[in-house]
Amino acid sequence: MKQALHIFLKDVRRLWMEIAGVMLAIAYFAVLDILYTVLRPFGTDTLIIEFIVGASVWFLIARAVHEESLTGENEFWPTRPYERGSLLGAKIMMAVLAVAVPLFVADCVILSVQSLPVTENLGGLVLRQLMTATWLILPPFAIASVTRSIAEDVMVWLVALTVAIVAYFPQSHFRAADGKYALAGALALMVIAASRQYWRRGTTLMSRALIAAAVLLQALPLPESTALAIEGSRAPEISNITVTPQAPLIRTLGWNSRRGRCTAVPLSMGRARSNWRLEVRSQNSTFESADGKTWNTGWLPPDQGPTRYGWTDAVIYSCISPDGLSVLGAGTPLTLHVSVALEIFAENAPISVKATLAPFEVPGVGRCQFSTDPRSQNYMLACKAPIWFPPPGTIEISTAQWAYPPISSPRYAWTPMNLLPGLSPVYKWTTISSGLAASIREAIEHGGELGFRTETRIGLIRREVVVK
Amino acid sequence: MSDILSQAAHIFRKDTGALWPQISILWALLALFVAYDPMLASAAKSGITDYCAPLIMVACWFLCAGVVHQEALTGNREFWLTRPYRRDSLLLAKLLFVVTFICLPVLISGGVLMVRAGVPVLPNAGELILLSVARSTWLILPPFAMACITSGFKQVVLVVTALVFATTVVIDWAQSFFGAMRPAGIVESHNVTGVLAMVAIACIAIVFQFNRRRTVQTSGLLACAVIALALPLFSDGLMALPTRILNPGFDPDRIQIAFDETVPVRWDNRPTFRTPCGNLALKITGLPDGATLTPFGDSGGSAQVRTASGQDLRASMSRGSIEKQADGYWENLCIFDLAQSASERAEPLTLRWSMGFTVQSTESVTQFPVRQGSFAVGTSGHCEVGQPDFLMCRIAPPAFGELSIGLENAGYRSFSVNAASNEYFYPAFNSAALTPVSKEAFYSPPGEGGLPWPIEDALSHPDARFVFRKQRVIGVIQRELVYRGLRFTR
Known about the structure:
By secondary structure, chain A is of the alpha+beta class. Chain A has helices at residues 2-14, 16-35, 46-66, 76-79, 84-113, 122-136, 138-145, 150-168, 172-178, 180-199, 204-216, 223-232, 322-328, 437-445; strands spanning 242-245, 251-256, 260-270, 276-289, 294-300, 313-320, 334-347, 351-354, 360-362, 366-372, 379-386, 393-397, 426-431, 449-467. Helix content of chain B is 42%, strand content 24%.
């Protein structure tokens, strides 16, 4: 411990500039995050400052690890002035005290300045620091432990990112929702690589192979099957749900400016409970011409909105690009095979809140307040949720018939336990569009109510649909 | 002279041997970019090139800094005391390295992308080279200059992070205090004065550092180069300087724009518009013949519309080019939050549109009747009307300017259907930043907005033509337009 402290203090003296840079960037991020509101944004983009925080953390961690570079045979290692355990302890101390603690303090300040409870969210805040460390600290730590210098580090990052991009993209969208399992595996491999490197310095090849495996894990060919198996098993009864086209023939629609020529496929869904809602998460369409030529779109996000509770009908849209049409030939009848990944949501008991101009708490969602949009001067509901991403669901306004705006959108499927991704501990969003301005005004004036109908995601299924 | 050259060749060979991993990574990334051609890849794979582009930029910076750092110019190491190299040989070797391993591969990848997209290379070679030179202002010059005043890549990372951080902080707070002074985007989009000043000072600093090795003075010069980027913030005259030099006799101050309230508003009655949209006549004077005006910036599409009772409504102006039609100039306005009852009441509205406009010269490239099939757009590329209602073009836009595609019939010209342009002076972190070819697809199904008439209808009009024009910005102006008695009289 004494030696670890000694190494840590030596690193602090050597890297004070980098540490100051990290703290400055985190402090400025906190200022921007506090000043930023959805209706009146401040500054260019918090994403830039998040990128700066990420870059400065990467640089600090890499420099700290490279202070006693673990690879190669320099004169330092034959004399072995340090215990490896102390060395690892010192570097972890640097990561915790120079990165994790300032981030934790920044999170607490951001919450308290925005009148959001800190003590109630303490557990969540700690969990968030652990999650942030896995993407902000662990990868630079692992890569620095198998490289000698910043130049080598940059090269490894460039190669790793290139491989990850190429391996990841051919299966794009569906992977983005469910590649989290591969990502968890990759992070575990990185932990093993870094600890192995500190434990048995000199076996760099094995540690580098582990890092390579972590990068290549994203390229495994069956991630959606894995995700389906894991998430489908949570509620076995969802495997009974059937999805069939309402008619074997479909009609062609016009051009969609983003996708090309589109077709609408009406579907019937069976054996779903009345309080369930099915939503297409992603779809993969394959068009086949009579002479056997095919055109595949890959996994893409769907175009249509969510269905309602208890509805057994839905429509999916499949679009073929001009390039696809020129391959298959225009004017020829096509067979369409669509793989759909459907998410199933169960409705929770609705939460009723009186519509008022004062801020109000929505349990499990966050703190909301009606504010006026500076551009349209219409009422919108501006909400903020600390630590956890708001649950999916809809809002019911007592004064508006047939209008169910979503509680929030979009949703994140990546983070464990629905924790907020990124550096900000507060998610800010607006809901209820200006088209409902009159209903909102009426609800506020006449004591109307808002019903927050939150949902719990109970699983994911994949179904195949074939039409002509 | 031959000594200088032979020493430069020696240094060049030595650097190539030392930096082959960095060269390989950059070339592999460029090969990947070409292989997953953003012009040809399917929707699912096109994301690869978008993510490749920033990596290519990092690899370029890394290689560029690496080659200068092979003989770091800072400090007083024993290397410089013994002075084994002439400084001019050293500079020549580094420039040769950058040209051979960065400029040429980027140029060749651009040529391959052109060939794959069916765009003839030779007629567009000049534009391709110009584009490469312009892009080197952010792909090569910044790391090269920074490497001259640093001793290793660690310092470059520190300087870059500090610069980006400082710039972000300055922009954030400057916008919050002075944001209303200029239309958003006017500085970012047309700051040629600042860029040219920055490039000139940076080049002087590099030559000075290689010649004298005075790091403190060079750092000062480079700081001036960064500050020079902000020059146009302080003076309209400075911002307009390159325009005035390149276009003698053209005075943007003579251009006057106002709504012509004597001409009735032409309301669009297309059933697909869910919001009231009208065409407002404009009075424009002082605009050179053939020139067009294009609103730009973040708020280019928005206008303030206020009712007589003081309620603000959300409205959008069309963002296409404003150009002379058979009966004058027109601008399209859609109002979103206006209830049907208000339009029935014909309540007078006040419209304010405070905007920056680019003044663009136009030069016709080609035009041809609207018909099915494929056709060449001069030497710039080719287009195809493949279905009754879509037009797909793969074209090489001019290096400085854009190629606009319009539809013309009976004296009326649609606003630019699509305009292919190149990203040049500023770092752009997407695939468009590195490809010289632009893929423009335009769909015009009957009954949807976008064109005054759909392509399918135009096919049956013998006079309807596709018009392709090269456009170049010749000036930037800022104007506020007010319409005081706007009434709904549909």
